[in-house]
Amino acid sequence: MSVGPSRSISELLCTLALWGAGVLFSLNVANVAVGVLLRYFLGGAPFWTEELSRFLLIWAVFLAGAPALRLGDHMAMGFLSRRFGVLSAPISAAKDASVVVVLSLCVVQGFRHALENHIFRTMGLGIPKSVPLMAVPVGSALMLAVYLLERAYGEAR
Predict the structure, then answer these.
(1) Angle formed by the axes of helices 5-42 and 49-71, to 10°?
(2) Which of 36, 43, 61, 95 is the most exposed place for a label (fewest CB within 10 A)?
(3) Rounded Cα gap, residues 60 and 82, in angstroms
């Protein structure tokens, strides 16, 4: 099997996204462990640990979405194509169009929403609300890029 440039870019994006998600998830585990230990030994943890945990998990999930999409670990609608063999091409085209439209909307509207909320701060960490909200457009853009690259290569699930 030859590896085209779109496949290499897709693999690189997914590798970087998985590493990023892994680092964020590891930080989340450490944050929760520190919070639990502080509650156990000192009777309380810093108030911001819960918020940090939530934001780290949200970012990790959205970053891991692109590799999951590439590997077919997301919900698949392939059963429709198999069930209606004659209509498999139009069903596949409709599926592709719906994925592209939904992810594009998530990118555009998510980015707009994040920018609109940049002036607000989170309660615990005091960071701009756009920081956690940017997980939606960034993760959706990664998923969209990987999906389109995989479709160009001909092996998207």
Answers:
(1) 150
(2) 43
(3) 33
d(CA 31, CA 110): 27
Question: Is 68 exposed, middle or buried (CB count within 10 Å of its CB: 0-12, 13-18, 19+)?
Answer: middle
Residue with tokens 């892994």: 22
State how far the Cα of 65 lies from the Cα of 100, in Å rounded to an integer. 14
Tokens describing residue 95: 């599926």
Cα 156-16-114 angle, rounded to 5 deg: 90
Residues 64 and 149 sit within 8 Å (Cβ to Cβ): no
48-98: pLDDT as tens digits: 999 999 999 999 999 999 999 888 766 565 666 667 777 777 877 888 899
pTM of the complete model: 0.83
